[in-house]
Amino acid sequence: MSRHRIVRRMNYEDECCDDDDDYGHSYEDRYSVSPSTAAQFTYNRDRDLSLSNYMQDEIPEETEMEMEPEAEQEATGAAAGTGLTDVQKARLQSCVEEVHSIMGDTVPEAMVSETILRHDFNLEATLNELLARKDAPKSQRTPKKRKDRTQGASNQNQQAQQQQQQQKQQEVKEVLEQQKQFLDPSAPRPVLTLSTPKRATKGFAVDTNNSFVQQSQGEDAADRLNQEVAALSVASGGDKVKNPALSSVSGAAAKGTESPSSSRPQTPQKLDHAPMGVPRSASRSKNEKIDAKAEYAKRQGDKELINLVVIGHVDAGKSTLMGHLLYQLGSVHQRTMHKYEQESRKLGKSSFAFAWVLDETDEERSRGVTMDVAQTRFVTEKKMVTLLDAPGHKDFIPNMITGAAQADVAILVINATRGEFETGFESGGQTREHALLARSLGVSQIIVAVNKMDTVDWGQSRYEEIVKKLRQFLKQVGFKEADLSFVPCSGLGGENLTKTPSEPRLTAWYTGPTLVQQIDQFKNPERPVDKPFRLSVSDVFKGATGGFSIGGRVSAGYIRPGDKVMVMPAGNIAGIKNVTVDDLTAQIAFAGDHVTLSLTGIDMSSVNIGFVLCDLLSPSHCATRIRAKIVIFNLEVPVTRGYPVVFHYQCINEPAIIKRLVAILNKSTGEVVKNRPKCLTKNSSAIVEVEFERTVCVEMYTEFRDLGRFMLRSGGHTIAAGMIEEILQGKVQKDDQN
Amino acid sequence: MKLVSKYIDKGAGSVTLIAEEAEDMWHAYNIVTVGDTLRSTTIRKVTTESATGSVNASKVRTTLTIKVETIDFDTQACVLRVKGRNVCENQYVKLGAYHTLDLELNRPFTLAKHEWDSVSLQRIEEACDPTQNADLAAVIMQEGIAHVCLVTNSMTLVRAKIETNIPRKRKGLCEQHTKGLHRFYDQIIQAVLRHVNFDVVKCILIASPGFVKDQFAEYMLNQAVKQDLKVLTENRSKFVLVHASSGFKHSLKEVLNDPAVTARLSDTKALGEVKALDDFYQMLQNDPDRAFYGVRHCEKAADLQAIETLLVSDELFRSQDVQQRKRYVRMVDSVQENGGTVKIFSSLHVSGEQLGQLSGVAAILRFPIPDNDEDDESDQD
């Protein structure tokens, strides 16, 4: 592709200052230094390096005058006096960090530095003394007991170590052993710093975090490095002293020291929740994060947002009940309702008129069956309710799972008609399965709406009978007594929905709340607003004004127009053009909101249902294989290795294979009953490994409770519910095993 | 498959076979092992150098005999490719020269082995049985996902996997949903037209959860009338609607087990396999001590003459390791000697796939053997 230059006609201006033309040139060609080299070796005023970087001797006056943090440090750091040289300070700093990473921040900084100085920077001696003095500091990073017994001695070793620590043993483990523990990838990783003693004396923490590659951050780190070597990082050092928690996560916080985050008091527990190995979002300062919480509280006002799923056996009258409720609350226009009545009568299905409010597709209307989750919203006295109307037919349980996964609370609709309740409640009926699914997917509060009471003449005995049976069953499933409530009603007649009942046969014995009043009594769920942003895509569609939009529920964090998000598992980056909550443009949307986002900078075909939009800096985990704890339900054939299942998670349903049965657990105590079992029979609890055909975005239960749950189905039956315990990379594992 | 000649003496010898259809290639793939000699006609590019030094390349059809080194099977095209060194010199090809034979349909090939075991002989017999023939197409679908598969006696081939994004129904925006759905159906119709040969296929199963199948069938016939797709309208009676629990490939197992299908297809191999695996799982549920899986466990049971039905995946017999293969053959033989039945699953079928995941061997026993040691299994994963 050589280009012949026509020199005579050449436009010299173009040729010489052709800025765009750097295909195939590296930076070195033009500047003779690469940016990283430049950053490292050239002096740059922007990076507030002090001149004293280049000096050997310290000028005490300057440091003293320079900043207050120094004073602060002195105040807190007592003996960490002024008489120290830079090198000593650096050593002190790193020792303090080391101590914190081992002991947690239970010991005051001042005491630590004092002790270190007394022991002349001898880490072991310091630790000895501190541990002896301190009444067994509770280690903040007690590793979760691993359930995998295939792990070898190193793991046991680790556990033993942990015990030692807990048993208030005074001798400090060898530093080397500590290192091993740090290096052990299986160890839980709230602590990201790897400060080996040798390096420690040099005075900087080495960031082991591989994903921490962004250049700007790299520079930050380099800056910090320089500063610390020169021991003039008084400012950041001061920060550190102020906020001891930070040093325990200093790997991630290496950058954190630059950002204002350090000014915000953070408990280490909170930081533990941050996905491992990934720095917390730096795209916004933490100050704004605090705002987010406040903003959330402000926006909530007196009306709390709640996601409500309506479940129950097919033909229990879920859609009709909710349709009528919406109508009574005024969410549905009188004229629209009239139209539905007319049209449904034409089809000879006048009783379905209210259900048509929610069942909108032709197919659903003509068959009279809800197929997909309908979503709408209504406002009660105290609550903003996002209503998810789940299908009851057993073939559409995948859709129901998607709905229930997005819900906080549920209404279980029961058909009170004689015979109907019984069929729904039998082992093949959906009443049981739905209740079980909802509970397993994290719905903790439930209202049982005993519907169609008019068909049984509002009989109290019938109501009592149903309540008794269900109460027992729901408690078995795991609902707490306090979170259960029962309401008799009629969806078609509209009795006891919003207004106090007028039916004399009901008022004769029922004086409790109406359905809406009962909805108002739901407790508000906790929303993980301060966690990194996550949204599982449940719908992709073309927007009205070109471009395309995605729908879904924000599972964690918050989102604003203009933010950048990562689309996983593909790893593309997209911008948020618009955030719509309930058909209204919003400036911000929080965890729990059902939103529509219009995206830019990405093609519609590269976003699919089940993809996850997440924070750029703490992206979601991609997995092809996971280890999970599952609870097996009633099933006909036992589960063996190689059992094909469908993995239902958020909006995903993916074919998967149970690759390995790790252990059977005792259902109540969680103890291992049998390792490597031959098969899993019904009503047992087990640890298994599940492998997918494709990469799937998942989260661990320990990090995001809501996002760590899944269901396994096979042959039209729900066979198990599970929690993701660990993400294993499938392909690698497979190679290892074969 | 046609058996032209068979000369086997004390286990060693050769057979000449003619593959007649694509499936026969799969059989051939399961019979040929490394170390065999294979003789077939082939096209070879021959370069000749004349006295003056000019090089002349030409393609020649010649018959070559090679000693097999590698075997490749392309499931989509059903082509068997065997590579090896020439063991029989002729005027074009020197001894020891490498050649890759592409086995062709309707051309005889001769396979010689030093040792013919019962499994391979049985396989030949089975392949040459013309009565066992049932071709079946299946469309397994759910909203957004569809698999168009061809099911033959020993193969399940996924011909098309269709995955589209269907926008959800949302308030006042149902057209997008309907439009998406129709686009999805159109794609399936195209796939069916392209991949299903209506002359061969006995019936076409349309399986889905819910009403998707009915909706699709209706839409397809409407489209067929509208677009004048004769193939579809003429073969209307071949479409069978069956319930499946999901649109994924493994649902094919339950589809084949559906009574409506069983009635239509006489006892075919694919069906038999599904049933046998089901029996195994049933046994595992009812009496776990009478259902074993894993090589070691099954071997142990075989030694005790306890095996009533042995399920083996044919994958195991394709093992490159001769010892390994012998081990399985021995087990199969001993079970048969003791009056048990052996079912060799095709690893291309869904049930075979599942069995493969389940270590490849499973057995239903005559009497319970307590499962005492759990460390036993530790090596097989």
UniProtKB/TrEMBL annotation, chain A:
Reaction(s) this enzyme catalyzes, per UniProt: GTP + H2O = GDP + phosphate + H(+)
Database matches in Pfam families: GTP-eEF1A_C, GTP_EFTU, HBS1_N
Subcellular location, principal: cytoplasm
Domain Tr-type G, residue spans: 303-529
Region annotated Disordered, chain positions: 132-173, 238-292
Low complexity bias locations: 156-169
Entry GO terms, CC: cytoplasm
One annotated GO biological process: regulation of translation
Composition skew (Polar residues), residue ranges: 258-269
Keyword Disulfide bond carried by entry: no
Localisation: Cytoplasm
Gene Ontology molecular function, alphabetical: GTP binding; GTPase activity
CDD domains on file: EF1_alpha (cd01883), HBS1-like_II (cd16267), HBS1_C_III (cd04093)
Record's keyword annotation contains 4Fe-4S: no
Family affiliation: Belongs to the TRAFAC class translation factor GTPase superfamily. Classic translation factor GTPase family. EF-Tu/EF-1A subfamily.
The protein, known as: Tr-type G domain-containing protein
Taxonomic source organism: Littorina saxatilis
From TrEMBL, chain B:
UniProt KW keywords: Cytoplasm, Metal-binding
Example GO BP: ribosome disassembly
A GO CC term attached to the entry: cytoplasm
Source superkingdom: Eukaryota
Gene3D superfamilies in alphabetical order: 3.30.1330.30, eRF1 domain 2, Pelota, domain A
UniProt domain eRF1/Pelota-like N-terminal: residue ranges: 1-129
Protein name, entry field: Protein pelota homolog
Species per Swiss-Prot/TrEMBL record: Littorina saxatilis
